[in-house]
Specification:
About 25% of the residues lie in helices and about 20% in strands. It is α+β, with helices and mostly antiparallel strands. A 4-stranded mixed sheet has the order 4-1-7-6. A 4-stranded mixed sheet has the order 2-5-8-3, sandwiched between helices. A 4-stranded mixed sheet has the order 16-14-15-17, with helices on one face. The C terminus is likely disordered.
Length: about 475
């Protein structure tokens, strides 16, 4: 099917990571403000099947090692298709792009981040048209309802800017549709396995009040996807018995998680970031992170490039959160989940949120309880744990009710943290294993001038076996 493409195309290449030292160029990513991917259902007469357009420079005209503005528009037509399926197919862009050897696609919607490897470039991967050919061929072959498709790539920042606000408005209209429907109103949730190539034990559960972590798939999207492709990566999950309505634990979700994670995940609580929390893949839009010094949660989104109030940037916390793990106190979330009535419900919801970036607060301001809007600080108000604690006390934040002076000694914190220039690592639970022993640090605070993380490589055995 892809004889003319100079690299391999197949499932085996899903999960391939391309590091900066090995990339030819980057498309989108955290350094580019405006980028997006969009699928639109159109009338058949408006589409030229197989047409691939590039508006802006193609790969040979993009400087090596640079980051380029990027957007993808896929237009499809077919009898029986409607706009309900658009969001689901946008996640298929993520899946199919990762079939391409030497090409990496991360995230979704307005957060897309792609890289082309040096090896793929050297093999002759010199045009975005190859990506378009893969998308058209796989969409039409795996989803027979699609009868025609065309793809447009945008690399001209001016052209992307013209369409950016329209793309955001389309995303918002989809998200708004699911608001008002409650988890208690339905008998079926949905699961998504699209990120298991990167996080094999990740079990994404999509409910009316809990979007997929990537922020791209609502409960309605899940229903549409499961109907048109029953054997696809998005599937129905029978709720079963509600074990705990506060935590959001359901017997059907637990059973599905156990099966889909090969027994690694046995319990999932949908509304908690601490007790058997929902697993985190790597495409999450944000992170809820516990701050033991104040018994509250900070929230940070992927677009925030600065250091958060606990001394860590998003990227560092993402490494501690991702991979399909359940990490108590480090919880991958979607932005839409922040608008949900079930957001961290088991921990107290926004009454436990003590910090978030100003840009994120502006985006979700109308969904924060009015009495809490002014008592949740941003980077404009506080930049350290000590400042955070004083702000919360001064503004009588409700999280104060959880404080225990015998457990949280502010004077000790100030003395050890000094001016706040050193990173402060906080963990609700941090396990270490070795020599048959597991040690778990709970509510730990670690102060360090520098942390060095290096891989441990075992030596070859006397018999010549390679254990690296």
């Amino acid at each position: 099917m892809f004889e003319e493409i100079p690299v391999e195309i197949g499932l085996v290449h899903e999960g391939e990571r391309i590091r900066k030292s090995n990339m030819h160029c980057e498309l989108g990513g955290p350094g580019i403000k405006e980028k997006f991917e969009l699928v639109r259902v159109c009338q058949a007469e408006t589409i030229v099947h197989g047409k691939i357009s590039i508006i802006g420079p193609d790969l040979p005209d993009i400087p090596a090692s640079s980051s380029q503005p990027f957007a993808i528009l896929v237009e499809i037509a077919g009898e029986g298709l409607d706009s309900d399926i658009e969001g689901v197919l946008e996640r298929r862009i993520h899946e199919y792009c990762n079939y391409i050897q030497g090409f990496m696609h991360l995230n979704q919607r307005y957060d897309i981040w792609c890289r082309l490897s040096t090896q793929a470039w050297n093999k002759g991967f010199r045009t975005l048209r190859y990506i378009g050919e893969v998308l058209i061929a796989l969409l039409c072959s795996e989803l027979p309802l699609i009868k025609s498709a065309q793809v447009t790539f945008f690399t001209d920042p001016v052209e992307i800017h013209k369409r950016y606000d329209d793309a955001l408005a389309i995303y918002e209209s989809r998200d708004a549709r699911a608001r008002g429907l409650h988890d208690e109103d339905v008998d079926v949730f949905y699961g998504c396995a699209l990120c298991q190539s990167f996080a094999p034990t990740h079990v994404c559960v999509i409910t009316p009040e809990r979007y997929a972590n990537c922020g791209a798939i609502s409960w309605f999207d899940g229903r549409a996807a499961a109907r048109i492709d029953p054997k696809g990566p998005i599937f129905a999950i029978e709720k079963g018995v509600c074990i705990d309505p506060v935590l959001g634990e359901y017997s059907g979700v637990n059973e599905s998680a156990r099966d889909r994670s090969m027994g690694e995940v046995t319990r999932v609580c949908l509304y908690s970031a601490y007790t058997w929390p929902h697993t985190s893949c790597g495409c999450f839009e944000g992170i809820a992170f516990f701050i033991p010094e104040v018994e509250g949660y900070g929230i940070v989104h992927r677009g925030f490039q600065e250091v958060t109030v606990n001394g860590l940037p998003f990227s560092t916390m993402a490494d501690s959160t991702a991979g399909g793990r359940q990490v108590a106190g480090f919880h991958g979330i979607s932005i839409e989940y922040l608008r949900s009535g079930k957001f961290l419900a088991a921990e107290g919801g926004y009454a436990r949120v003590v910090w978030m970036p100003e840009s994120l607060k502006e985006k979700i301001y109308s969904f924060i309880p009015a009495e809490l809007c002014d008592v949740i600080p941003t980077e404009a108000s506080v930049t350290s744990i000590n400042e955070l604690r004083e702000f919360l006390k001064k503004n009588n934040h409700p999280v104060i009710q959880y404080w225990n002076s015998s457990e949280i000694n502010n004077n000790e914190s100030e003395e050890r943290a000094g001016s706040g220039n050193n990173p402060v690592f906080t963990f609700k639970e941090l396990p270490f294993t070795g020599n048959g022993i597991k040690i778990t640090l709970k509510n730990a605070k670690i102060y360090a001038e520098k942390v060095i993380i290096e891989p441990v490589r075992q030596k070859r055995s006397d018999k010549g076996d390679n254990h690296e």
